[in-house]
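From: lab user (bench 3)
To: helpdesk
Subject: output format question, protein + flavin-adenine dinucleotide

Hello, I'm new to running complex predictions and I'm not sure whether the block I got back is the full result or only part of it. Here's what I submitted:
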Amino acid sequence: GSLDEFTDQLPTVGAVLLVTASYNGTPTDDAKEFMAWIEGSDQDLSAVNFAVFGVGNRDWATTYQRIPRMIEERLLALGATQVAERGEADARGDFFGDIDRYTQRVWPELTQALGLEAAAPEDLGERFAIDWVGGDRLDATLRDYHDLSEMQILVNDEMVDTSSEYGDSKRHLRIALPEGVRYKTGDHLLVMPQNSEDLVRRVAQRFDIDLAASLRLTQKHGVAGALPVDQVVSVQTLLSQFLELGDPATVRQVKLLAEHATCPPDVEKLLALAEPDRYQPQVLALRVSMLDLLERYPSIELSFAAFIDQLADLHPRYYSIASSHLSSPDAVDIAVSLVSGPALSGQGEYLGACSSTLAGRRSGESVLARVRPVDSGFVPPTDLTQPIIMIGPGTGVAPFRGFVQDRLAHQADGKTLGDALLFFGCRHPSVDQLYAQEFAQAESAGAVRCINAYSRMDGHPFRYVQDAVTAHAEQVWSLWEQGALIYVCGDAQNMLMGVRRALEQIYVDAHPDQSISAEQAKTWLSSMEVEGRFLIDAWG
Ligand code: FAD
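Helpdesk reply: Thanks, we reran it on our side. This is the complete output you should expect:
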């Protein structure tokens, strides 16, 4: 069950295993009531036995595992007994491996703590049985499972000069909202992807099945997730709409493939790949999928049922809405970076599932999507006179286009606005400067001041947004002292770290008499994040 279902109702018989994540240090939507309860409760929970497993991403260093840790601390403080050590999975690292390792250790720990006899888990076989049947029918389980609606694409334009050697495609999409659906500036759009035709064809070829064939999945045990159980679906539909085909193989999956390889040298090679020193650099880092390995080692004899049993459900992806509800209430804009290039695995081309789905849809066609209200505070300030500093290179500029449209609408209403500074970064002004004209017009209208960084323009003073922030330290600090909010959006890995460092250095330099250490500056920025003055909407 979700954590909210157990608010004030933790079982006191047996053990409770709490599996939870942090989103920018806040609880997931279905754990908010539970967190409010546990933080405020002084109830005696001494009859509760518990263990916690936390999911996170180390790129969000200051809030990594925050919620799982808080739950652990609160339960201990209320007298509950911890019956297994807290586990962690890091989405930046070997995520599924972390889960496998935890799963292996937690059952013996639990059985020991509860004085039970350890039993080897029963091998239940695959979750599904497959009946091959005639006919073909599309199904609607995805919509119900993820609460999605069909949304029509109104505009789908290329924003980048893709003929340039560094012009990677970025699409501007305008998507009509169904009747009654509303959004707020800063919200996200969740979009359901489809796997590329090429990827789907490769699976059919490897298992020698006809894409037009139809089948029915019958659930034998376990959790069906969003899979279309007890319905007739074509192989094409099942593979393109329901399963993550591109995920890197986990250690457990590599071992499973080794078990099914019929040629001893293949078994040996696969088992070697499952060893940590090889798995990390040769499978995880190169994102080698189960399909890649199945193609590489033709002696593997794995059934189609066993293959799909191993795959995660295809899940919707997030996009920052790039329009304002004030000026565009009935349709949302998004800016999508197409993920494509030679596959790191060395096997074929890699196409991001959702970005390629979106890039390929023409106006008039539709996608399954849902508006997801933002709850991290990443919204324009309610006090319009509060200054804002926005930092968003590439498609990270998306939400700020919405913020600036908001400001133009307020200006037109005669409202007084605080200062707004936008740091944007791209490769070259003539190649990929997104929404350049619109921002220039907004700047002339006094709604924003734009500072650009260009990573491939010889002689330009700033390569990356963080360089531009550093070069404008005085303005940044002066706005900060006037109560500015700082927003950062885009690539979580390199850009976010660079921006953090630039802001920390500005803080150090603003206090020359206090010899502030790098560590103290870090603590300051983290506390500003917790206070909601430094706001992040970043993705890996
Ligand atoms: P996937 O199929 O999910 O593939 C992506 C994975 O493939 C990544 O792990 C990547 O490292 C890996 N990969 C990349 N290249 C290769 C290669 N050559 N070989 C092997 N593996 C490779 N994106 C936007 O474009 N615009 C936005 O406004 C936006 N807003 C977001 C807001 C939030 C809150 C979040 C969490 C994400 C946002 N994203 C945005 C990212 C977006 O959700 C998707 O992650 C992105 O579009 C890629 O999804 P995909 O399905 O196309 O790729």
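A quick orientation on your result: The CA atoms of residues 24 and 96 lie 21 Å apart. Let us know if anything else is unclear.
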